[in-house]
């Protein structure tokens, strides 16, 4: 009865417009109090304890740093320089600007690891450029939103950091390495329908008339941005610093590029940058800590074991259970953000992983890739909201374009499910 009340209270609070973090915390605290009705106040001591326990984990220190890196590189003009360099390489023509948008967004994923941040940074440059070339605003917003979704796969990734905290045995370096090839595969899968749609509907007719940036000049301008993932990921691979320390190194590298090299960031810009990163980090970490209360109530009420038993004994078999999980995550991704989905459902899925002996790193990649699809699947896609706002279009106008991109990324996800070595080869090669 109390377990049922836990989920009913959570859903009711959500429908009433309560922020998802507060809904998780309130539902969990209510369930804990009712489960300890005789010693209600003593039982509620578990609430602050689990709030702190959900937050006091070393890997989570990297989250505000990588969020800050995204804000710094957004204001430093790195995205514009990368776009010019990519255009100088691929040239002008129908479908080339969408290709550039996807490639630059994937590269930005190696710097910030945040989909909405990349959608804002790349969208601010590419949507205007695509409008000048004659691409419809709804199409441009769809391409940028889909491209930004690859960023939670390509390391460094905030989603992988949170997954490593929730699942014992899933190390951050192994997850970062495992996400590399699936992230690239997802990007390549997006390029095919993006270019095909542009050419089929004769978009970008003015693109060929726009000037092509000089190659060596654009390479020189983009060099510091191109070096950022090498510094961040190369330093981790060489053992110079941990993923958490790499986030701090990335912050100082970004400040150096923005303040000394490009001089696009001044001292007076630091406060808005820090405030923006602090607000976003606070939201993420509050949701993480409040979800700790919800997860504790799940385990205290004994919800996890019956749910696991019911799924395992459903007769679906291993493949059927995996398909059910993927469909459920795709559906939830249309309404909830990725971090909330992980915090709510990973504790429920962990016993299923153990029962079927799924590799925790491979399952983490499948989980994050599925969540990535949800980030640009209407009606509540966070990346699509950002890009549609930049393009000044209603989300409804993106549907005819974005569903092709959703289908393409779903096919990439199925490839990782069928061939796990796409994710597991690189971590094994690197010895993780």
Automatic annotation (TrEMBL):
Pfam families in the cross-refs: DctM (PF06808)
GO molecular function, one term: transmembrane transporter activity
UniProt superkingdom: Bacteria
Subcellular location: Cell inner membrane
Alphabetized UniProt keyword annotations: Cell inner membrane, Cell membrane, Membrane, Transmembrane, Transmembrane helix, Transport
GO cellular component: plasma membrane
Residue ranges annotated for the TRAP C4-dicarboxylate transport system permease DctM subunit domain, each copy included: 7-422
Membrane topology type: Multi-pass membrane protein
Transmembrane domains' residue ranges: 55-73, 85-108, 114-131, 143-166, 172-198, 246-265, 277-301, 321-348, 360-381, 401-426
Subunit structure of this chain's protein: The complex comprises the extracytoplasmic solute receptor protein and the two transmembrane proteins.
Assigned protein family: Belongs to the TRAP transporter large permease family.
UniProt cross-references to PANTHER family, sorted A to Z: C4-DICARBOXYLATE TRAP TRANSPORTER LARGE PERMEASE PROTEIN DCTM, SIALIC ACID TRAP TRANSPORTER PERMEASE PROTEIN SIAT-RELATED
Function: Part of the tripartite ATP-independent periplasmic (TRAP) transport system.
Name the record gives this protein: TRAP transporter large permease protein
């Amino acid at each position: 009865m109390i377990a049922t009340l836990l989920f009913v209270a959570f859903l009711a609070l959500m429908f009433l417009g309560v922020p998802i973090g507060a809904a998780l915390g309130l539902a969990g605290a209510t369930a804990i109090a009712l489960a300890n009705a005789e010693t209600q106040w003593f039982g509620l001591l578990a609430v602050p304890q689990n709030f702190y326990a959900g937050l006091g984990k070393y890997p989570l220190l990297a989250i505000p740093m990588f969020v800050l890196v995204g804000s710094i590189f957004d204001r430093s003009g790195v995205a514009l320089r990368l776009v010019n360099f990519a255009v100088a390489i691929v040239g002008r023509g129908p479908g080339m600007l969408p290709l550039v948008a996807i490639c630059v967004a994937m590269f930005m994923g190696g710097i910030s690891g945040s989909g909405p941040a990349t959608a804002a940074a790349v969208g601010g440059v590419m949507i205007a450029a695509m409008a000048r070339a004659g691409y419809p605003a709804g199409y441009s917003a769809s391409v940028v939103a889909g491209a930004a979704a690859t960023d939670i796969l390509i390391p460094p990734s905030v989603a992988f950091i949170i997954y490593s905290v929730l699942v014992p045995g899933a190390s951050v370096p192994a997850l970062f390495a495992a996400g590399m090839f699936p992230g690239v595969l997802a990007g390549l899968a997006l390029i095919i329908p993006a270019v095909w749609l542009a050419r089929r509907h004769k978009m970008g007719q003015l693109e060929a008339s726009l000037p092509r940036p000089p190659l060596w000049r654009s390479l020189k301008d983009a060099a510091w941005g191109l070096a950022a993932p090498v510094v961040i990921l190369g330093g981790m691979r060489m053992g110079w610093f941990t993923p958490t320390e790499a986030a701090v190194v990335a912050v100082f590298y970004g400040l150096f590029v923005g303040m000394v090299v490009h001089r696009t960031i001044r001292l007076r810009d630091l406060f808005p940058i820090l405030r923006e990163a602090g607000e976003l980090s606070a939201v993420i970490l509050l949701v993480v800590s409040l979800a700790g209360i919800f997860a504790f109530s799940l385990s205290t009420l004994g919800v996890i074991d019956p749910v696991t038993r019911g799924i395992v004994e459903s007769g679906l078999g291993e493949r059927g259970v995996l398909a059910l999980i993927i469909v459920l995550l795709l559906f939830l991704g249309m309404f909830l953000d990725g971090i909330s989905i992980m915090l709510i459902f990973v504790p429920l899925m962990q016993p299923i992983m153990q029962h079927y002996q799924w590799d925790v790193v491979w399952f983490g990649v499948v989980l994050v890739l599925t969540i990535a699809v949800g980030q640009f699947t209407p009606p509540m896609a966070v990346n699509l909201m950002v890009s549609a706002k930049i393009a000044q279009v209603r989300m409804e106008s993106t549907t005819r374009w974005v569903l092709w991109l959703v289908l393409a990324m779903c096919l990439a996800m199925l490839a990782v499910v069928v061939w796990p070595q796409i994710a597991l080869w690189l971590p094994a090669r690197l010895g993780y």
